Request: fold
Amino acid sequence: MKILVVNCGSSSVKYALFEMEKEKKIAWGLIECIGLPEAFYRRQTVKSDEKKESVKIANHTEAVELMIEELLDEKSGSILNIKEIAVVGHRVVHGGDKFFETVLVNDKVKEDLKNSFSIAPLHNPAHYAGIIAIEKMLPSIPSVLVFDTAFYHTMPDYAYVYALPYEFYEKDHIRKYGFHGTSHNYVSQKAAKMLKKSLNEVNLITAHLGNGSSITAIEKGNVIDTSMGFTPLEGVIMGTRCGSIDPAIIAYLLDKYPTYKDSSVLNDMLNKKSGLAGISGLSGDMRTIVQAVNDGNRKAMLAFEMFIYSIKRYIGAYYGILNGIDALIFTAGIGENSAFIREAVCKNFCALGIEIDKEKNYEHCTYERFISTKNSRVKVMIIPTNEELMIAREAKKRLTSK
Reply:
């Protein structure tokens, strides 16, 4: 069985083709800057090296057409006929209050997705455009939607309801949704296997650390809480996002600076000009921050310490809520690649039974592994995330259960 995974952003289409018998990725690519003069197409297969070229792409439909043409190409393609694709799995960032599980696409699903545009204006319209484009190019192939927010459907109401007048939850569906769910789902399942236990036997804290970061508490397979909220802005400090702040700051800024009365300007500041970039004045890229810290930059050091502190606060809180954990898992760009960050996060957590082996932590490798000491009560793990494979698995499961 071959499954095509598609992830449509506002100006991009990312894809991967899997052979599910061995869960092997056989072709993948990215079409970026759709509708702009600098648009490009980068792709690769298991049999060929990466190719990159400039392209003229006006919209998502044209991007999908280009993707299908490449997959069917006589010389470099990976399939002979589109019917080799059993199902298309679409990543959807936000399921709102309508979608709490993976669904097959039909007219009702598409209508409900359109109605969720206001709650995820940066993501869901692009996902919808991708779904329509796939339907046009692959009319006989079923599509499945896999929602990042669906993983959090087990959260108790006392964790996801905000202490605002209850009518805002009832009428406007303002609540904690959580994000990066596909990643947290994948690494939690992988962690249980590495621990040689079933997922419903373990308590885990998963730390997805990248330009966007989130921490999730998982009790016996059920999500109890997660750091991101109504939007991905809540939670730990991130590359360009402020994370959790006193909401009265917003009212203060609105009164003092008239420019912020335009909600788009305010949103842009909170999401794109804050976080590590806002504090350091340099960049939201952790590699730049760490280099500046080594060079003695004071603001970079402050940004770094704030980032670490915000992560430790969530880990400490979730450890208490779960009444102890079996494992702490690091994943995503920073979590997988920065030994310096992992060491800083785990420092002074001995009282919680979290101790990392410095040599194992700094070992350079790309596979999943344990980095805790032999005496550590809590296993500390690095698990490279694989959201595309998780989407393929979910699509296969939904298709075969149809």
Summary: The mean pLDDT is 93. The chain has two domains: 2-147, 196-387.
